[in-house]
Amino acid sequence: MGKIFVTSDCHFNHVNIIKYESETRGMFADPAEMNEKIISNWNSVVSPEDTVYVLGDFAMGLPEKIPSFVVIFSFLRT
After folding, report:
1. Are 5 and 52 in contact (CB under 8 A)?
2. pLDDT tens for the 78 residues of the chain, in order
3. Which of 44, 41, 40, 70 is nearest to 58 (CA)?
4. Which DSSP letter does residue 26 get?
């Protein structure tokens, strides 16, 4: 049986969090680089047997960006 994880505020694709959040300022050139790091960190902890509940703020963007969120989700172990 896998573990259960609860998280929130992943902020995939959030341009301004890169610029204004002190913990991420200057760490990433663009949202794609930040997304790759979040996915890598996530997958280093979460196994295929685990369950992850994302409570909010999974990604940032206009409705036309929703297909890209589905692609991001497909890379995460859930």
Report:
1. yes
2. 899 999 999 999 998 988 888 888 889 999 999 999 999 999 999 999 999 999 988 888 877 877 788 888 888 886
3. 70
4. T
